[in-house]
Amino acid sequence: MRTEEMIARLACGLRPVRRMPSPLVLLALWTLLAAAVIGLAALVFGTRAGLDRPMTGFETMHSLAALLTALLAGLAAFELSLPDRDRRWAWLPLPAIGLWLGTMGVGCVGELVRLGAEGIRFHVSWHCLQFIIGLGLPMAGLMLWLTRHAAWIRPLPVAGFGALSAAAFASIGLTLVHPTYGPLMVLAWHGVAVLAVTGLAALFGPRLAWRVPA
Amino acid sequence: MLASGQAARDARDLRWSALMGAAQEGDGAAYATLLAECLPLLRAICRARLRDATEAEDAVQDTLLTLHRVRHTYDPARPFRPWVAAIAERRALDRARRRGRQVARETLLDDAAELGAEGEAEERLAARQLREAVGGLPQAQRTALQLTKIEQLSLQEASARSGMSIGALKVATHRALHSLRRRLTGDAP
To answer: What is the ipTM of this complex?
Structure first.
C-alpha cells in the first residue's frame, strides 16, 4: 500500500479519542489503587502485632525510602510512557532506590552485629517472598494496564519502573502484616522478592502489554 | 534570515498542534492534512536510520500506524514535532534492528548449507579457510570487501554506506584481495 493511501485510510471515519491524563494525575490514581490493594491485603492477612508502637528513626527512614521509591518510580514510568518525554526521567527514582537499598543493607548489617553468626544462618522467608510476589505481581499487572499505550515506544524502562513501583508499594504493605525489621534473612529475601517482581515484569511485561490493544 | 526560519517553524509547530488537537476530537480532514504535512519529516527521520529506501518507507508506515494507535497520548499544550519525531525514531530503530537480525540469520543459513550432504569435504574446508582468512582481515578491509565485492555496491554507494572515501575503499579492497590471495595460496608477499 502506498503511504499516501494509508493516510487517507487512517483519516477516513476518524473517531474522537479521550486524551491521556497527565502523569501526575495517573500517579495519584495509581497510588489510590495501590493503597486499596494494600488495605485489602491487610484485611485478608490481618495486621502484625505491635503496629501501634511508634516507629524508630531507622524504620521511619526505611519506610519513607520505600514510599519515595514507589512514587518516583511510578512517576518515571508514566512520564517515560509518553513518546515526547525526556529519557532523563529514568534518573529520577535512582536516589530513592539507593536510599531504600541502603536502609535494607544497614538493617542487614545491624542484625549481623546483634546476632553474630546466628544471624547469617540460611533460611528462606517464604512468607516475605509470597507476600511481595503475591501482591507485587497483580499490582505490576495493574501498572502495565495503566501504561499499556507505552508498549510501542519504550516498553522496557516503563515495565521495569512500573514493576519496581508496585514492588515498593507491596513492601510497604508487608510492613503492615510482617515485622520487616526482624531477622537478617527476612530483609535479604525482601530484597530478592522486589528484584524478582521487577525482573519478571521487565522481562514479560513488554510482551504482555504488546498484546493489549491501546 | 535565521530568525524568519525559526518563526516559520514555530508557526508550523503551532499549526500542527492545533491540527492534532482537532484530530483528537475526530476531525478526519485535519488529521489527513497533518499527516500529509508531516510526511517529509517522517521520511527524513527514517531515511537517516535506514539506507534502503523500501525499508525506510515501511518504517514511515509503521510510524503512521503507531501514531494513530497512540494519538490519545498527545497533549496539545506541548509541541507536536518532538512527539511525532520520537515515534518515528523508535520505529526506524526497530526496523533497523529487525533487519540486522534477519541478515544475521541469513548468514547462519549460508553457513549451515555448507554442512549439508551436498557439500564436498574439500569445498567445506576451502569455505572455512576463506571465512577464517576474511575474519583475520582488519575491519576496514572487511567492510570494503563486503560492500564492493559481496554486496556489489558501486563505489559511490559503498562510500555513502561505510563513510569511507572512494580512494580509501579502493585501497582497502585491493589490500584485502591481495592479503586473501597470499593467505589462501601461500604465495610469498
So the answer is: 0.71
